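Why run this: before we spend reagent on co-expression, it is cheaper to look at a predicted model of the complex and decide which construct boundaries make sense. The entries below are exactly what would go into the expression plan.
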Amino acid sequence: MSQPNSDPTIYDGLMFVSLGATIVGIVFWILTLNSLGWTGG
Amino acid sequence: MNNVVAKTLIVLQLVFSLCFMCFAGAVYSFQKTWKDKAIASARQVTDLQKNLSDQQLARTDEKTKLEADILAQKNRADLAEGKLSSLATDLSLANTARASAEQERDKHLADLQVAQQEAEARITETNGSRSEIKTLRDQMNDGIAQRRSLEDKLLDQQGRIDEAQQREEQMLKEIGRLRDLCRANRVDPNEPYVGPVPAAIVKVDGVVRQAKKNASRSAELVEISIGSDDQIEKKMKLIVYRGSRFICEIEITDVYPDMSVGRVIEETRNGSIERGDHVTTKL
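The model came back. Tokens follow.
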């Protein structure tokens, strides 16, 4: 049995930040496709 | 080792996710401008394609027209070449004719010079002949004048001869009559006559042309139609009568060849003298 790692490290924070950035990027991507009518131009 | 890989992957994930976010945001921010530019570009491309097609159509029409013009010009050039060749042939013929004409001209010029020299000689000869003709004409005119003068003289002489012949005939008749008269009176005509011989009066008849008083109205002058040609002489007395009526006697004062003027002898007047009255040398 391994012991649970209870202390988050900087890498956990970085992963959280990257997840947020990915979500924001997806939101921008969806908005862009919506404005373009989902046809790509 | 695994930690290093995991950490690296986490960092890479962070970097890529940030990049994705940035690119997505940038695209969302600028995609509208890009779209407008794309639409404008598409519209411009459409316009350009339309212009291109119009230009191509116009070019095709122009090309067709130019080809037709080229064909027409080619035909025209062919015709012109044909005419040019014909004209070249004509030119060669004309040159040949001109050369022959020049030879003919030179020949004629030579003939002309000869003819001019001959004409000058003829002119000189003609001038000489004209002067000679003028001299001969003057001589002929002089001869004609002399001949006319001689003819006039001859005619005058001939008239005198005829008149003399008539007088001779009258004289011969008169001599014959006088001889007969002498023979009838027993007179020898060859016997010589002693003493003055009165002038014989020949009977001559005439008419009065006019009668006028003189300036002092002391005497009346009468012009009669007989003169010296009719043997009328000055101081001869003539008788004026009208029909069977004696009018007066006149004495001749002036005598001309075909008329005379007489003065009325007032002592013998038996009436007035009028134009047309008869006058005679003896009744």
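Residues 6 and 12 of chain A are 11 Å apart (CA to CA). The interface with chain B takes residues 11, 14-15, 17-19, 21-22, 24-29, 31-32, 35-36, 41 of chain A (CB under 8 Å). Bring this page to Monday's planning discussion.
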